[in-house]
Amino acid sequence: MAKKSILARDAKRDKLIAKYAAKRAELKAAGDLEGLALLPKNSSPTRHTNRCTQTGRARSYMRQFGLSRIAFREHASKGEIPGVTKSSW
C-alpha cells in the first residue's frame, strides 16, 4: 500500500487539474505562453499519475484494468476478473 501522504498529494493534484482545465485550454488556444507559465505546476495534466485502485502502487500499472501487476495477478488467479484465464499449453 502506498503512503497515505502520497495518495493525498495525488488527489490534490487531480483537483487542481480539474480546476484549471478550462483556463489552461483557453490560454493554449490564445497562444499565451506567459499566462500558462503563471498557472500552478501541479495543474498540468502531465503531472497526473496512474495508480492502482486497490494498493495505490504507481509502477507496473495496467491501464485496461486499473490495477498494478501484483493486484491483477491476485484477482486473476481467484477468477475475479471476467474473461481472464491462466494460460496453459
Quick description:
This protein is mostly helical and 89 residues long.
Model description:
The chain is mainly α. It has 2 domains: 49 residues, no CATH class; 33 residues, 30s Ribosomal Protein S14, Chain N (Irregular), CATH 4.10.830.10. It contains 3 helices and 2 strands, in the order ααββα. Strand 1 and strand 2 form a beta hairpin. The model has no long low-confidence stretch (mean pLDDT 94).
How many independent structural domains?
A: 2
Determine Rg (CA atoms, Å).
18 Å
How large is the share of residues in beta strands?
A: under 5%
Could you give the count of β-strands?
A: 2
> In terms of structural class, how would the helical and strand content be classed?
mainly alpha
Question: What is the number of helices?
Answer: 3
Helical residue percent? 40-55%
Average pLDDT works out at 94
In N-to-C order, the SSE pattern is HHEEH
Question: Termini, distance in Å?
Answer: 34 Å
The global form is elongated
Biggest sheet: strands side by side, in what order? 1-2
Sketch the major β-sheet: 2 strands, antiparallel
Q: Uncertain spans, ≥5 residues at pLDDT below 50?
A: none
